[in-house]
């Protein structure tokens, strides 16, 4: 976890928003000496930041390194809770495992775990999640909502809406959601979401929302088995995108939706989710552990369950399945 001093330093630069901020102002903000400020700025430089220093004006950040460290994420991040604590790693097995551990140790709500690569990334239904270095966003977020256990899947749907809105906001692309939580562009998967719970009887300790986003991969970067079904924002939009910017945008959207959800419940989120959903009203195939059902996707329930009407007019509630559109 990065130090509080570093968080405050980045906050100070964020507030200055690209203009100069004096060493004294930074020192006052952090609560340290000007010599200490100078030392912290030298640390930033060794990490690849270009910091301009002008006598009688102060400091300003010119460029940031293209990584997704806590600094990159927090510089310009306009949230109240999400991402205020960032745990960054260059390489991990899975960010989910780290988030679970931090959660057990009492990490505050909004703590984000992010890595440049995952060697054992986890997908839904025990599948692996391909997470190569520096090209995607691999992150897990700790939330601690006071909601009953059975409502937790609603947060997965909420996260999917946040991702769609974030992509729409920073690109010209029009992503869609395939139930429950695949984000598609041109019918290929660009993002997957894995939600895991820490709970005791009906009490939720935390919800760990894992989000995997393909950002700057080229089509040939994907392994053969994913070539036809996966895409990235760069492939779909024709240009590379700052991964830190994507993370910031997702966190900001997620926080706004999470606040809405805590204030007004699932209904407004459900409406948004349905407006982005692919294949609602159309025929799809759902493969559950027991059977394959072909039918019309009617919508989702308040608990986020998919309703599927088969050829005989029988409506099936789908709790977990692979969907083919
Ligand atoms: C899916 O199968 O669609 C869900 C994929 C979720 C992948 C993300 S990447 C960050 C977090 N860490 C993991 O190991 N999995 C999730």
From TrEMBL:
Belongs to the biotin--protein ligase family. Keywords: ATP-binding, Biotin, DNA-binding, Ligase, Nucleotide-binding, Repressor, Transcription, Transcription regulation. It catalyses: biotin + L-lysyl-[protein] + ATP = N(6)-biotinyl-L-lysyl-[protein] + AMP + diphosphate + H(+). This is Bifunctional ligase/repressor BirA. Biotin binds at residues 118, 189. The keyword Nuclease does not apply. PANTHER family: BIOTIN PROTEIN LIGASE, BIOTIN--PROTEIN LIGASE. Residues 23-42 bind DNA. Residues 71-262 form the BPL/LPL catalytic domain. Pfam families: BPL_C, BPL_LplA_LipB, HTH_11. SUPFAM superfamilies: C-terminal domain of transcriptional repressors, Class II aaRS and biotin synthetases, Winged helix' DNA-binding domain. It comes from the Bacteria. NCBIfam families: birA_ligase. GO terms for biological process: protein lipoylation; regulation of DNA-templated transcription. CDD domains: BPL.
């Amino acid at each position: 976890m990065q130090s509080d001093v570093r968080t405050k330093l980045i906050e100070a630069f964020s507030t200055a928003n690209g203009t100069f901020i004096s060493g004294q102002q930074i020192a006052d903000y952090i609560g340290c000496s000007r010599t200490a400020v100078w030392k912290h700025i030298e640390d930033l430089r060794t990490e690849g930041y270009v910091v301009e220093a002008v006598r009688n004006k102060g400091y300003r950040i010119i460029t940031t390194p293209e990584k997704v460290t806590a600094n990159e994420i927090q510089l310009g991040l306009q949230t109240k809770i999400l991402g205020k604590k960032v745990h960054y790693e260059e390489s991990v097995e899975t960010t989910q495992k780290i988030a679970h551990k931090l959660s057990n140790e009492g990490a505050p709500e909004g703590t984000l775990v992010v890595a440049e690569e995952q060697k054992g990334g986890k997908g839904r239904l025990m599948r692996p999640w391909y997470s190569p270095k520096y090209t995607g966003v691999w992150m897990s977020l700790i939330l601690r909502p006071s909601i009953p256990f059975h409502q937790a899947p609603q947060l997965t749907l909420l996260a999917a809406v946040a991702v769609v809105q974030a992509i729409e906001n920073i690109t010209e692309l029009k992503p869609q959601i395939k139930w429950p939580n695949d984000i598609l562009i041109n019918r290929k998967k660009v993002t997957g979401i894995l939600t895991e719970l820490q709970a005791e009887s009906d009490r939720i300790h935390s919800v760990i929302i894992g989000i995997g986003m393909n950002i700057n991969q080229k089509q040939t970067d994907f392994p053969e088995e994913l070539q036809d079904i996966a895409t990235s924002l760069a492939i779909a939009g024709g240009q590379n995108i700052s991964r830190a910017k994507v993370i910031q945008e997702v966190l900001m959207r997620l926080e706004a939706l999470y606040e809405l959800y805590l204030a007004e419940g699932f209904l407004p989120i459900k409406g948004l989710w349905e407006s982005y959903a692919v294949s609602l009203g159309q025929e799809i195939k759902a493969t559950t552990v027991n059977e394959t059902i072909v039918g019309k996707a009617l919508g989702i329930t308040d608990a986020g369950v998919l309703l599927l009407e088969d050829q005989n007019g029988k409506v099936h509630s789908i709790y977990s399945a692979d969907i083919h559109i």
